[in-house]
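Hi there,

I know you've been waiting on this one. I reran it after we fixed the sequence typo, so this is the corrected version. Both the input and the resulting structure follow.
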Amino acid sequence: MKQIAFIFCCSLLFASCYQPERNCSNFHVGTFEFETLLNGELVKTTFVRNDSIEIDYFEGKSDTASIRWINDCEYIVQKVNPKSMSEEKAIHMKILTTDNDIYTFEYGLVGATNKQRGTAKKIK
């Protein structure tokens, strides 16, 4: 019985040490695609990011936002020319995991507790 308890404790110890891969610096610059459901329809956004600017392309329109990196895996996005009060609000982005050319992220308005998740793929 003591051996089973020891093995169980050891397995918990090793399992709790697992850290998902996060090579966030690979995703600071490039061209990316993000797909999401919008009103029940799957839509695709393409965005080009350099270290401080991101340009989003959605349904034939482009939009520019500034980027401020908090650390290697987190940044704040702020639209450069907001057209409404809701567009003036900054969005906090956090890269959770990376895998080759794909990263999973969490995002939400700065200061808000409601967060959503998404996955983006680096295409260039």
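Quick highlight: The chain has a mean pLDDT of 84.

Best,
R. S.
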